[in-house]
Design brief:
The chain is an alpha+beta fold. The protein is built from six helices and eight strands, in the order E-H-E-H-E-E-E-E-E-E-H-H-H-H.
């Protein structure tokens, strides 16, 4: 067994580096930290595992904001398993920074990813946010829909069907991307197979 994106080994609890990993697990897909195992998989018995669990719990409660959901379990009276669950209230910060896993290492997220985590924590995506540009036209989109779908003209109902509005009827960022004069540097489009876009 080796460390991976959702599994980390820590020989002891003396360093706080595992708190970055807790941030990463809570921000993404969850994961497990096993204390009392070296990086190469050799078991190192944790002295006084009950006290060690209390120390881990206190460190999490004092250092990770907001507090993530987790469970601690003593295994064979020698190692401690800490299971961290994917959180709903992202980003989970350690010393004011959010982290993610890169295979078996933990790294700080960049500004763009931090913004995405903040939106996700508010149950939003970038595409759903109201665009800062509201004076949008869709002549190119209308022409394309006329060719492909045979519509007569582009109506507000069609724009709603395409989810181009926020709940308060402002154009969202998807609308800005599809508008005639969007302000975005580029758009990535992926085609899967011959018939699936």
């Amino acid at each position: 067994m080796r460390e991976n994106k959702q599994l980390e080994f820590k020989e002891n609890i003396s360093t706080n580096t595992y708190l970055k990993t807790i941030s990463a697990f809570a921000n993404y897909d969850g994961g497990k930290i096993i204390f009392g195992i070296s990086d190469n998989g050799v078991i190192r018995v944790i002295d006084n595992p009950i006290q060690a669990c209390l120390d881990i719990e206190n460190k999490i409660n004092d250092n990770i904001k907001p507090m993530p959901r987790y469970t601690l379990d003593i295994q064979d009276n020698s190692t401690i398993s800490l299971e961290v669950y994917r959180g709903q209230f992202k980003p989970y910060l350690y010393k004011g920074k959010a982290y993610k896993r890169n295979d078996s290492s933990t790294v700080e997220v960049d500004r763009l990813e931090l913004n995405r985590l903040i939106l996700e924590g508010n149950n939003l995506s970038y595409e759903e946010i109201a665009s800062s540009f509201q004076d949008l036209t869709f002549i190119e989109l209308e022409n394309e829909l006329k060719k492909v779908l045979g519509i007569s003209f582009l109506t507000e109902d069609i724009l709603r069907t395409l989810d181009l509005f926020t709940s308060d009827m402002k154009y969202n960022n998807v609308a800005a991307l599809l508008s005639d004069n969007n302000q975005f540097i580029g758009v990535d489009i992926i085609r899967f197979g011959d018939t699936i876009d």
